[in-house]
Amino acid sequence: AQSVTQLGSHVSVSEGALVLLRCNYSSSVPPYLFWYVQYPNQGLQLLLKYTTGATLVKGINGFEAEFKKSETSFHLTKPSAHMSDAAEYFCAVKGGGGSNYKLTFGKGTLLTVNP
Amino acid sequence: IAGITQAPTSQILAAGRRMTLRCTQDMRHNAMYWYRQDLGLGLRLIHYSNTAGTTGKGEVPDGYSVSRANTDDFPLTLASAVPSQTSVYFCASSATGANTEAFFGQGTRLTVV
Questions:
Q1: A23 interaction partners in chain B (CB closer than 8 Å)
Q2: Of A15, A65, A106, B46, which residue is the least packed, with the fewest Cβ within 10 Å?
Q3: How many angstroms away from the CA of A70 is the closest CA of chain B?
């Protein structure tokens, strides 16, 4: 079984401030982890993913995330928030057995960027 | 590049009516998924298909059915709609394997009245 917990359903930051969106996962197998972004009235777009190898993963739009196995975490960060970053962000874990891979999402974190 | 196409984009449906949400992908992905998105609940998996000819139940399958006759199409059917099925529905697809990301359609906003 696998699950994802996103801490904080709503995060508000000032433009130029650090963005930190928290994600903790639970997985019975080595996890594959993803962050998606959803802009209003749109589908989900991949920001970045961790599969194997380097634990610090860089994505689009200046976002990055670090896989920490000891903390079962995959937090998303961006050094300096921009107004265009306002959106909802979803952490997801993919795992399973054989070919039965399913993507399980957290409940999402709405990011507000204040001028 | 179309990616994933969902139809309709929105629909108002009377309770008790049958409805099929359409999903087509042009990426030749083996795996396809249907999710529903509800405020405060995130995305929940309804049904999935790992390859043409096979389907499986997700987290919230009751009241929904799917079929996968070929690689490209993965329709979702509500046999008799109820108001609790009011939601935004997303279709997604991915290549085979656990390390592959899913690609999403733009969603279908369904209101059951």
A1: none
A2: A15
A3: 20
